[in-house]
Design brief:
- The protein is an alpha/beta fold.
- It is 40% helix and 12% strand.
- It contains 16 helices and 11 strands.
- Strands 1-3-2-4-6-5-10-11-9-7-8 form an 11-stranded mixed sheet, sandwiched between helices.
Length: 495
């Protein structure tokens, strides 16, 4: 077992907010900060495999531009200007490959930037590189990557979570102070819980999906990742907001997440009502996880929160509904990867028909889990099964949304463990898809309802000495509630 947790000293141990303050006051330069993280990546990435591509030259050029502007007396482009970031390799970039961790897109460079990428550049945030993930964001352990799994810095024989394990591992190991992930069924929150970091799935439609390679369009959502709640809020503020290029983007003001994080840091939760979900108090979940969860609830109560148990009966059906809806959308979205227009083309020697080239390209380009989900979705959408499977799953989705609505009539936020266990060993669940799917039981319902959620570190499990996470959930467009409660909990734990 190898442990690569964040160094106790040096620039790479500082929070993003601390780094920004030092850069903007000219105590240090963005180039110095960016180089420190690039050095850390060079030191650790061979063992962690968290980055699939490192853009050192591009990152340093962006840092130099920030330094030049600040030296000229200009105001920082954002509260995080000059602080570098790790970008999940699912958001397209013009200056780096975007592979979605798939052989299908190996070497692909986009002709345009995703809106999130564009907003990061406009905010003066250097992009260190592109991070590892489960292929096309399908998986819970990062083991479905065509380029090998990322490794958990707390124990490199274990998963950092999925699909966004690369971003979480980069944060936890000091390779980056900030990260961008995407969350279709827990792919930001679940890796955050396993790596002692903070991850937020914003309300669906509040962060643009333009340039985010789609897996399941009604579920996918990009979001911020950090090592503290305030850092994550500062990044959230940069990437959120309406985008005319995204038909699902909502034209609403960005929730005051930074102000909420600063308010929450005072530690007072008086008047806040919190719901404990009856369905997430399960026998068989890891003892150390549940110990930390109950300790978190006790702490929140001591900080003034009123604790109420709520019943969400249809959450028990969320896994089944998700694994019908998600594969159906995958089947549709991934039909474009056919060996004809872009991506891998196999068997194109002039002796094969177009259909044969398509078949061979998809057979060679997609990994086993992607193929499994395409086949599940295609079957469920086929004549004779659409009503029995897909439409029924959508009805369950509505019932889950109604469960949330009733719960939020009683409470301001809901809390739960983020995951049923701590990080499992790489290879442990690969041959058992259902065991892998069950790992996301706590995170899936939120995506089906389009609401917002956060995972914040809740300590080390007593039985494994590995990180656990507390999940906080709030109604749509009330993302600031996450940050107030998350920051308060974080402040209470750090006393």
């Amino acid at each position: 077992m190898s442990n690569l947790t964040v160094p106790a000293e040096g620039l790479t141990s500082l929070t993003a907010a601390e780094l920004a303050e030092k850069i903007h006051s000219r105590e240090i330069t963005s180039r110095e900060v960016t180089q420190a993280f690039l050095d850390r990546i060079a030191e650790t990435n061979e063992e962690l495999n968290s980055f699939l591509h490192v853009g050192a030259e591009e990152a340093l050029a962006a840092a130099d531009a920030v330094d030049k502007a600040l030296d000229a007396g200009e105001e920082p482009a954002s509260g995080l200007a000059g602080v570098p970031l790790a970008l999940k390799d699912l958001l397209v970039t013009t200056d780096a490959p975007t592979t979605a961790a798939s052989k299908m897109l190996e070497g692909y460079v986009s002709p345009y930037d995703a809106t999130v990428t564009k907003r990061l550049r406009e905010a003066g945030i250097p992009i260190l590189g592109k991070t590892n993930l489960d292929e096309f964001a399908m998986g819970s352990s990062n083991e479905n990557s065509a380029f090998g799994p990322a490794h958990n810095p707390y124990d490199t024989e274990r998963t950092p979570g999925g699909s966004g394990g690369g971003t979480a591992a980069a944060l936890a190991s000091g390779q980056a102070p900030l990260g961008i992930g995407t969350d279709t069924g827990g792919s930001i929150r679940q890796p955050a819980a396993l790596t002692n970091t903070v991850g937020v799935k914003p309300t669906y439609g509040t962060v643009s999906r333009y340039g985010l390679i789609a897996a399941a369009s009604s579920l996918d959502q990009a979001g911020p990742c950090g090592r503290t709640v305030l850092d994550t809020a500062l990044l959230h503020e940069v990437i959120a907001g309406h985008d005319a290029f995204d038909a699902t983007s909502v034209d609403k003001p960005v929730a005051p997440v930074v102000a909420a994080a600063r308010e929450g840091a005072q530690g007072d939760l008086s008047g806040v009502k919190m719901g404990l979900i009856k369905q997430f108090e399960r026998d068989g979940w890891q003892e150390g996880v549940m110990e930390n969860y109950h300790a978190a609830v006790d702490q929140l109560r001591e900080q003034g929160a009123e604790i109420i148990e709520v019943d969400c009966p249809h959450f028990d059906d969320a896994l089944a509904a998700y694994y019908l809806i998600m594969p159906c959308e995958v089947s549709s979205n991934l039909a474009r990867f056919d060996g004809m227009r872009y991506g891998l083309r196999a068997g194109d020697d002039g002796s094969h028909s177009a259909e044969q080239v398509m078949s061979q390209s998809r057979a060679e380009g997609f990994g086993p889990e992607v193929k499994r989900r395409i086949m599940l979705g295609t079957y469920a959408l086929s004549v004779g099964y659409y009503d029995a499977y897909y439409l029924q799953a959508q009805r369950v989705r509505t019932l889950i949304a109604q469960d949330f609505a009733r719960a939020f009539e009683q409470v301001d936020v809901l809390v739960s463990p983020t995951t049923p266990t701590t990080a499992f060993k790489l290879g442990e669940k690969v041959e058992d898809p259902m065991a892998m799917y069950n790992f996301d039981l706590c995170t899936l319902p939120l995506n089906l309802a389009g609401l917002c959620g956060m995972s914040v570190p809740s300590g080390m499990a007593s039985d494994t000495n590995l990180p656990t996470g507390l999940q906080i959930m709030a109604p749509a467009f009330e993302d600031d509630r996450l940050y107030k409660v998350g920051a308060a909990y974080e402040a209470g734990r750090n006393k």
